[in-house]
Amino acid sequence: MRIVLLGAPGAGKGTQGTALAEQFGVPHVSSGELLRAEMAAGTPLGGEVGDIVARGELVPDDLVLSIVGRALNEAIKSGGYVLDGFPRTVEQARRAFELAVPAGIEADFVVYLAVPDDIVRERLAGRHEGRVDDGDPEVVQRRLDLFHAETEPLLAFYRGRGILREIDAKGTPDDVRENVLAALR
Ligand code: AP5
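Above: inputs. Below: predicted complex with BIS(adenosine)-5'-pentaphosphate.
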């Protein structure tokens, strides 16, 4: 199974990604987690992206593509992936599609977790993991603005390909998981 999760910051991509990966027995690949691991390890790439992530801006496409591409090539050896946080721009989606089709690893489904902005603001305010991009309401707003401007246009791209599943993701994590599984059946 190869699934891409789309949604606003705080929509529940990480929460559902972990559960779906377990359900389908494939790796969960999160672009945000990969970037934070580089930052925590103090690698050159982590140093390059740290300030960008802290401001809620998008990391340049080339950097994200290289790091996610490596992780997906590993994941696919285990039979698939649940990918969360990537692609996030039309350019990322276009380039990923060009690479995925000849390799036969394009997504089976794109799951969009739809949650209103006020609910995601509450969820992010309630998360206390010490993430550099959660504490400042202006940074959270910037992440939301970029989601609407850069990522939402992907919905039309995937709808056109007939693989988009739009999920009401306002409920509890278990409710959302049920909604996702029902949409994939
Ligand atoms: P990333 O890590 O992808 O962050 P995000 O998209 O902002 O999403 P979050 O991780 O905050 O939320 P989520 O949707 O995973 O929800 P979660 O399950 O955690 O990216 C971080 C940064 O990295 C970006 O801003 C950018 O700088 C950079 N980046 C990453 N990918 C990139 C790319 N492709 N291109 C360029 N830059 C990139 O849940 C959130 C909270 O809500 C948790 O506390 C959770 O417990 C709770 N929760 C979850 N579901 C529910 C529910 N149903 N009900 C109540 N609470 C819930």
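The chain has nine helices and five strands.
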